[in-house]
Amino acid sequence: MKLRIVYDNEAKEGLESDWGFACLLEAEKKILFDTGASAEILSRNMKRLGLKKEDIEIIALSHEHWDHIGGLDAVLHQNVAVYVPRSFTRGTKKSIGEKAAEVVEVSEPADIVPGVHTTGELRAGAGAGIKEQSLVLDTKEGEGEGVVVLTGCAHPGLENILEAAKRFGELYGVIGGFHGFDNLKSLEKLKMVMPCHCTVHKEEIRRMYPEKAVWCGAGVVIEI
To answer: Using one digit for the tens of pLDDT, what is the confidence trace for 169-185?
Structure first.
């Protein structure tokens, strides 16, 4: 499975950086996870990467914050299905539904396509908090390496997300925004760590795990 970072706080030369996150998965179907904050920047980055919105078959949104759904207008089209946490506001779901083929509300863990799963809607603890879904990706078939977790901002807590992802397989790696997660020692058993977007301790993670920490930025392509 190929992953392309198309929107991030950092970017490779020739692409634009901005506060937000979006990642394109090339699995059985092309799935865009989050859309960044700006439709214009997302559109320009996609064009420079040779990507067309019509090629995107599924959009999965982690949570309703603007830096993850602000670029939606650049990628919505009449043949795309959009997976959103059930907690999204009625207005947002209605607006998406007017431009997409289908809005799929997510509450429980589920398969999206073979090899790509959702953790379901998670939040920190039992009280109020930002609800968010993360994706869980199978690694190369037959290699038995486990699963890679793809997060938006990890508002429910990265440790909680990783624990929820274990139902789909042994943890191999994690990619995305980790927010204020600071229990960096707990990452030592993972084989790959790619801190992106809102990760507060990004540089510390890179220093602590130089052999398995991967730089994240728009334009980066990795295969799992």
So the answer is: 999 999 999 999 999 99
Closest alpha carbon to 132 in 110, 102, 154? 154
Q: Compute the Cα dihedral for 149, 85, 130, 16 and give only its sign.
A: positive
Pairing of strands 135-138, 22-26: unpaired
Radius of gyration of the chain (CA): 16
Q: With contact defined as beta carbons under 8 Å apart, do 19 and 37 qualify?
A: yes
> Within a domain: residue 9?
yes
- Residue 116, H or E segment: strand 116-118
- Domain containing 98: what range? 2-217
The residues near 35 (Cβ < 8 Å, ≥ 6 apart) are: 7, 20, 22, 42, 59, 61, 68, 69, 70, 71, 72, 74, 75
Q: Is the pTM of this model over 0.70?
A: yes
